[in-house]
Recover the amino acids of this structure.
C-alpha cells in the first residue's frame, strides 16, 4: 500500500501540536483525555474561554470525566490547574515551552508539548436548569379511547406493549397511552421507541413509561433520533449516580424514579446530584438513595440550584450554629442511662451518681 501525502489548505486555521505529544503521550491517553486536551488547544489558539460544563456537553462526557482528564494532563505538566478558596477549578494555564520542559525534567517525566501562549481559561459553573414545563392531564372518554384503538398504527403499539409486558393493558394503561399520544403529541414511531427503551431498561410499567415520556416532552424531544441522543446521556447519568452511591448492581425501577425526579422534576445538574451523593456516602452505609433524596428535596425546597449556592447556605448555617457545645442535660442523662442499662451487672449507686451530675 502506498504512503499518504497530507496537505493542508489554510495554514493559519490550525492548532499547533508537537511531535512529542504524538510520540510520547498519544498512545497512553484514553479518548476523553485526548479530546479534552485537543479542545483546550483549539480554544487557546482562538483566544476563547470555555468551561467544564461546556467541554462535557461538547463531547457527551460527565463533568467528572473532564476533571479527571485535566488532572491527567496536569500530572505530565501539560497544563496547570488553578483552584479557588473553595477548592473548585477556576482557571487553566497551558505552560510555555521553557516552563513545561523544566517542570517535566524536574519530575523525571518525558518533556511535554510546548505551547507558546499562556491563557487562563475561566471555568464557569453550569447554569441552573430552568423549571420544567407543567403538563396538564385529562381523562379520555370511552369513545376517544375506542377511536384511538381503531387506528392501526396505535393499535400495533398497544399490541407490542402487551407482548413486552406479558399481560393485557388495563384501562389506566390505555389512558396513559392516550395522554402520551394526544397531549404530549408523540408520533407512533416515538411511542414505539419509548416503549422499547423503557422495557429494554427493565421497566415494564406504564407509570415509568409515562414519566419518561413527560421528561422527553419537557426537553423538547420530537424525534426518535433526539430521544436516542438523550437516552444515551441519561443512562450515563444513572450509571454515574449509582456508582457514586457505591452501587454496582442493576438499577431498580424505584432508584431510576428517584434519579428521574432529581434530574427532570427538580431540575438539578449532574454535578449537584453527585455532590449530594457524596454527602450521603459520608453519612450512611444504608439507604443512600433515600438519604440523597432527602438532601436534594431540602435543597429544592430552599431554592438552591448550584454548588456555590449550596456552599454559601452551608457556611451561613455553620456560622449560626453554636460551636463546642456539649450535649444537653436531657441528652446527656439519656447517654448515661443507655451506657448503664446495656450492662448486665448494673451498678445502681454508680448510675445514680452519674445522673446527679446533670441535675
Amino acid at each position: 500500500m502506498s504512503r499518504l501525502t497530507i496537505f493542508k489548505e489554510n495554514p493559519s486555521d490550525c492548532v499547533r501540536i508537537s511531535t512529542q505529544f504524538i510520540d510520547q503521550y498519544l498512545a497512553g491517553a484514553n479518548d476523553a483525555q485526548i479530546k479534552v486536551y485537543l479542545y483546550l488547544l483549539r480554544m487557546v489558539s482562538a483566544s476563547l474561554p470555555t468551561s467544564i460544563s461546556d467541554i462535557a456537553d461538547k463531547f457527551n462526557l460527565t463533568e467528572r470525566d473532564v476533571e479527571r482528564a485535566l488532572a491527567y494532563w496536569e500530572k505530565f505538566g501539560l497544563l496547570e490547574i488553578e483552584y479557588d478558596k473553595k477548592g473548585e477549578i477556576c482557571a487553566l494555564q497551558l505552560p510555555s515551552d521553557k516552563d513545561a520542559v523544566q517542570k517535566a525534567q524536574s519530575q523525571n517525566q518525558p518533556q511535554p508539548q510546548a505551547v507558546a501562549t499562556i491563557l487562563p481559561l475561566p471555568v464557569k459553573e453550569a447554569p441552573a436548569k430552568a423549571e420544567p414545563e407543567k403538563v396538564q392531564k385529562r381523562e379520555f372518554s370511552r369513545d376517544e379511547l375506542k377511536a384511538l384503538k381503531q387506528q392501526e398504527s396505535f393499535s400495533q403499539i398497544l399490541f407490542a406493549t402487551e407482548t413486552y409486558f406479558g399481560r393485557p393493558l388495563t384501562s389506566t394503561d390505555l389512558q396513559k397511552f392516550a395522554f402520551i399520544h394526544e397531549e404530549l403529541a408523540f408520533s407512533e414511531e416515538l411511542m414505539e421507541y419509548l416503549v422499547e427503551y423503557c422495557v429494554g431498561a427493565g421497566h415494564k410499567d406504564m407509570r415509568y413509561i409515562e414519566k419518561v415520556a413527560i421528561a422527553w416532552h419537557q426537553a423538547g424531544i420530537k424525534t426518535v433520533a433526539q430521544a436516542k441522543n438523550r437516552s444515551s446521556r441519561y443512562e450515563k447519568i444513572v450509571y454515574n449516580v449509582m456508582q457514586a452511591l457505591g452501587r454496582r448492581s442493576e438499577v431498580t425501577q424505584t432508584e431510576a424514579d428517584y434519579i428521574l425526579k432529581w434530574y427532570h422534576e427538580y431540575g438539578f445538574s449532574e454535578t449537584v446530584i453527585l455532590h449530594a451523593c457524596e454527602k450521603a456516602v459520608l453519612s450512611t452505609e444504608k439507604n443512600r438513595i433515600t438519604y440523597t433524596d432527602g438532601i436534594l428535596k431540602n435543597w429544592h425546597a430552599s431554592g438552591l440550584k448550584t454548588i456555590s449556592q449550596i456552599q454559601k447556605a452551608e457556611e451561613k448555617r455553620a456560622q449560626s450554629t453554636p460551636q463546642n457545645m456539649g450535649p444537653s442535660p436531657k441528652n446527656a442523662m439519656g447517654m448515661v442511662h443507655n451506657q448503664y442499662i446495656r450492662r448486665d451487672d448494673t451498678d445502681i449507686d454508680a448510675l445514680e451518681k452519674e445522673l446527679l451530675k446533670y441535675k
Observations:
- The first strand starts at residue 80 and ends at 83.
- Residues 4-11, 97-105, 107-129, 332-346 have pLDDT under 50 and may be disordered.
- The radius of gyration is 28 Å.
